Amino acid sequence: MTVAVSGDSMLPVLRPGDWLVVRVGGRVAPGDVVVARHPGRPELLIVKRAARRAGVGWWLESDNQGARGRRDSWDFGAVPDALVVGRAAARYWPLRRAGRLGTDTRGALGWHAAVTLGRPAHRSEQ
Fold it and tell me: What superkingdom heads the lineage (predicted)?
């Protein structure tokens, strides 16, 4: 699956216009970048960092907590496992920034962006 990032709440890790490859159903660990369905708007996909397990779901956080329009688990609580689509494996566009996305072992940092499904990725509104 591919997704396109929009919004500034992922800075500096991800930027608007970054395109990601997502491993659907990939095993998630704390610190991983994931794509999930927004709990209140299931048609909207969000990109976050899995900060920690929270019961039967994941606490997902933004890297840039001060970004305008940022929404994460601080706003809607833990995201149920069923809404976690997969783990972001790599950025493939822009080419000069292409590469694998690693795990942030610091834990609490997270990231957010509104994204849409696409082949190739399509831009979306936050």
Answer: Bacteria
Residue range of the domain that includes 59: 2-117
pLDDT tens digits, 55-100: 999 999 999 999 999 999 999 999 999 999 999 999 999 999 999 9
Determine the residue type at 78. A
- Can you say whether residue 96 is alpha, beta or left, with left for phi > 0 and alpha for psi between -120 and 50 degrees? alpha
The pTM score is 0.81
Give 8-31 pLDDT, tens digit per residue. Answer: 887 889 999 999 999 999 899 999
Cα gap 20→39, rounded to integer Å: 21
Does the residue 80 lie in any domain? yes
Instruction: Quote the number of domains for the chain.
Output: 1
- CATH number at 20 reads 2.10.109.10
